[in-house]
Amino acid sequence: MELQRVEVVKNIYSENEKIAFSVKEKLTQKGIFAVNVLGSPGAGKTSALKQIIKLMPDTKFYVIEGDLESDIDTQKMRSIGVETYQINTKGACHLDAPTINSALDNFNLREKAILFVENIGNLVCTAEFVIGEHIKMLICSVPEGSDKPYKYPIIFENADVIVLNKCDLKEYVDFDDKFFYDGIAALNKKAPVFEVCAKTGEGFDKLVQWINKVRV
Amino acid sequence: MHEYSITQQIVKIAEENAISNGAIKIERISLVVGELSGFIGESIQMYFDVLSKGTLAEGAIVDITYVKPQLKCSKCNSFFYRKRFSFECPQCGGMGLPTEIGKEFYVKDIDILTDK
Ligand SMILES: Nc1nc2c(ncn2[C@@H]2O[C@H](COP(=O)(O)OP(=O)(O)OP(=O)(O)O)[C@@H](O)[C@H]2O)c(=O)[nH]1
Ligand SMILES: [Mg+2]
Ligand SMILES: [Zn+2]
Ligand SMILES: [Zn+2]
Which of A213, A194, A215, A189 is nearest to A51 (CA)? Predict the structure, then answer.
């Protein structure tokens, strides 16, 4: 018997990344622009998606809802006529590429469309598992506080667009704009930030313009 | 919770490399984990003990090297560890930019037994 050290140096995410790559290729070929929607629980991910969809009446949408349990968000999306598929992760805290790959079988992807994947409400590991998306849209909200870039730097670093929701609540909570924007400036030079209110729809016109500009 | 699926990948990577090197057993698996990845070593070891049962990795030690994140100053280019709630360079006050240091997450090497 002999003890031997074998060099490996293999990224543990690599299997997920490989599958994500093929999901993205498949979606691109079919003319589907995939958006990984990230944010804390209750930040307003579902409310924001409803506002975006309302402002784009000529666009076809698919939505995948990821939740630990329940299909409340799926019911909301279906009630506005959007084809939606629910994933229940039964405890898993993030969606990954294999899960999205099989969820896509539930759609008949024939037209050009935008696919929104509402990830599990979580600012930590959802940032690290790619699912085949073209962009990551981070939804934060005013009541969460302006220190979030400092506490969850990776998700702010990886976002392609940052939406600050619930701006109607700025007058009720101490939200330090400068602290928030300084944190983002250090972490992410590319992502634009849009201030919105998903309750009234304010600010979504600019976000929709941006989405139309970047979508494939 | 997601340490479960991640640990499956670790066992798989270790086993593939062990088999291709003619191992009869894996004694040790060494991981490099950046602290930004948010993985908890104890949790990986716990899932590992369950998931490695019946594989070449059963009973192996998971040895984790943690890497503290570092930022790079946009003014003076020095690398530094950041203070809480700040991205400022301690040398010159410049703005620190994210680097890859602290995001590592890979299987570095494995110790295997062969019957040679
Ligand atoms: N005042 C105010 N409330 C909002 C706004 N946007 C969303 N809300 C409320 O915030 C709560 C959560 O909104 P959701 O859209 O369900 O949030 P979510 O991120 O999808 O939540 P989960 O899927 O459960 O993680 C709901 O009660 C919304 O009515 C806003 O702009 N202003
Ligand atoms: Mg929701
Ligand atoms: Zn997770
Ligand atoms: Zn400096």
Answer: A194
Q: Which ligand is nearest to the CA of A41?
A: 1
Buried b (16+ CB within 10 A) or exposed e, B81-99: ebeeeebbbeeeebbbbbe
Q: Hey, what domains does chain B have and what are their CATH numbers?
A: 2-67+101-114 (3.30.2320.50)
Tokens read off for B13: 């990577």
> Distance (Å, rounded) from C-alpha B31 to C-alpha B39?
11
- Does ligand 1 have an atom closer than 6 angstroms to the CB of A44? yes
Shortest alpha-carbon distance between residue A152 and chain B (Å): 9
Residue A213 CB neighbour total at 10 angstroms: 7
The correct CATH number of A14-205 out of 3.40.630.100, 3.40.1180.10, 3.40.50.300, 1.10.418.10 is 3.40.50.300
pLDDT by residue (tens digit) across B36-69? 887 888 888 889 999 999 999 999 999 999 999 9
Domain locations along chain A? 14-205
Nearest to A6 among B10, B97, B110 (CB): B110
What is the amino acid identity at position A15? E
Q: pLDDT for A198-213, tens place per residue?
A: 999 999 999 999 999 9
From residue B45, give the alpha-carbon distance in Å to each of A40, A93, B34, B57: 28, 19, 16, 12
Token reading at B47 = 């899932």
pTM for the whole structure = 0.94
